[in-house]
Amino acid sequence: MKLLKNITLSISLLALLISCNSKSDVVTNSKDYEVYLQSTTNNDLKETQREIDFWQKKYDNAPNQKSYLGILASNYTKLFDITANIDYLIIAEKNLLEVNEAYKYSKVNNIRSLARNYISQHRFNEALELANKALAIGEGLNETHKLLFDVQMELGNYKEAESHLNSIDNKKEFDYYIRIAKWNDHIGDLETTISFMEKAKIEAEKYSNKHLKIWTNTNLGDYNGHAGKIKEAYQYYLNALAIDPNNSYALKGIAWIAFSHEKNTDEAIRIINQISKRHNSPDFYLLKAQIAEYKKDNDKKVEMLNSYFNSIDNKEYGAMYNKYNVLLFAEEPQSLSKSLSIAEEEVEHRPTPDSYDLLAWTYFKMGEKEKALEIAKQHVAGKSFEPKLNYHLAEIYKANNELDKIKPIKEELMNSLFELGPNYEEKIKSL
Fold first, then answer.
1. Which sequence ranges form a coiled-coil region, renumbered to this chain (predicted)?
2. 200 closest CA partner among 170, 223, 179
């Protein structure tokens, strides 16, 4: 009887421990963000639309005042950020082309604005051409160095990017802090990345700049998540929402915590469904497809992927979703030729480790494991700290029987499970 009592007590204690551990894994609380999910008023959207109406009328009444087009472009870009409607980004581009042509590409502010529009569209080489044009004019060099850093990082020209970073005059300003943070993230120093982003947050708060405060909080949410600091990440997303109750990016970050960390698929889907009503980004279908895969609901996964492809069936998206498309096409034998074609295009236009990874992974999926290994060794290995790239690298090593190289990558990948998502856990374990 005493033995049975001890066993019962041990089981009870074990159940209590399991319950405590389970509760400690839960970071989110719907009471923290429900008000933001139910928000039906978007003051930023209304204000931006009012600004567009105001400046459009002014321009219609004085079409010789081409500077109004730059203001209109800025507001259409805001509208794109708020709604994810690609048409607004294209309208902004058209306005910027017109104002630049009117001034014969002589005003650096307008040139840089068009370059940034092209960055958003993933037209990086065109952005670089414009940035160099601004550099040649010589006016406002500090801002042009910032732009060139951004473009060269996107193109994988890291030496040139570092040179422009070092050319920024003020090393204690917001714009420098966010770029040195990005540089440290590129070289794999996440702790220093977070430190600089926290300095940027202080600068944003000092000047009470709403947009920059939101931006730093959401970035700190992302970086802390990558570092495994899930509670901190969650709080930064909540901070962003306190400033902008309609911030879809922060809510998506919370949905990812619910899915990847807590495995609460129902809550993740609920959040995504709510924010999709006001910010209809194709990315959301991909997230819902990942969740369906985790739930082993293949019909729902196929439905979400079809919805994704339907949502990007607009030529205006250009190369913006090439990365996702390569990886999706590579999963199906009948679409491998599409995957290869897009991957080759990406390498040609943007020869980064990311682009070469797409090419190597496509060849791996085609069964050309030696060719995949050659590309990966030359252009990916040791050149990126992105978990998905290193997962692909490990799979390619495994296929080529270079097993000694897998163990250190595997350990890093297990530490990056939050960033990769729960669908990768079994894949990593089987490496």
1. none
2. 179
Residue 19: per-residue pLDDT = 38
State whether residue 38 is helix, strand or coil.
Answer: coil
pLDDT attached to residue 24: 53
User: For the chain, what is the largest distance between any 2 Cα atoms, rounded to a whole number of angstroms?
Assistant: 96
Phi then psi for residue 391, to 5 deg, are -65, -45
Q: Are 362 and 339 in contact (CB under 8 A)?
A: yes
d(CA 336, CA 329): 6
Both tokens of 9, joined, read: 């007590």
d(CA 385, CA 341): 25
Q: From CA 204, how far away is CA 197, in angstroms rounded?
A: 10
Sign of the alpha-carbon dihedral angle for 399, 400, 404, 407: negative
Q: What whole-number distance in Å separates Cα of residue 240 and Cα of residue 250?
A: 7
Closest C-alpha to 95, from 52, 130, 136: 52
In sequence order, what are the residues at sequence separation of 6 or more whose Cβ sits closer than 8 angstroms to the Cβ of residue 377?
none
Nearest Cα to Cα of residue 193 among 239, 227, 236: 227
Sites in the chain below the pLDDT cut of 50: 1-23
Going by the DSSP 8-state scheme, the letter that residue 312 receives in this structure is: T
Which domains can be identified in the chain, with CATH numbers?
321-431 (1.25.40.10)
Q: Residue 45 and residue 54: Cα distance in Å, rounded?
A: 14
What is the tally of helices (H) and strands (E) in the chain?
A: 25, 0
Local structure of 47: helix, strand or coil: helix
**DSSP 3-state percent helix, strand, coil across the chain (nearest 5):** 80, 0, 20
pLDDT reported for residue 40: 84
Contacts of 246 (CB under 8 A, 6+ apart): 36, 39, 42, 44, 45, 82, 278
What one-letter code names the amino acid at 376?
A
Segment (H or E) for 253: helix 248-256
pTM for this prediction: 0.92
Over the range 278-296, which residues count as b (16 or more CB within 10 Å of their CB) and which as e? bbebbbbbbbbbbbbbbee
Q: Given this model, what pLDDT does residue 39 score?
A: 86
Burial category of 391 from C-beta neighbours within 10 Å (exposed 0-12, middle 13-18, buried 19 and up): buried
Give the Cα separation of 364 and 60 in Å (integer): 56
Would you state the structure tokens that stand for residue 422, as one six-digit string? 């729960």
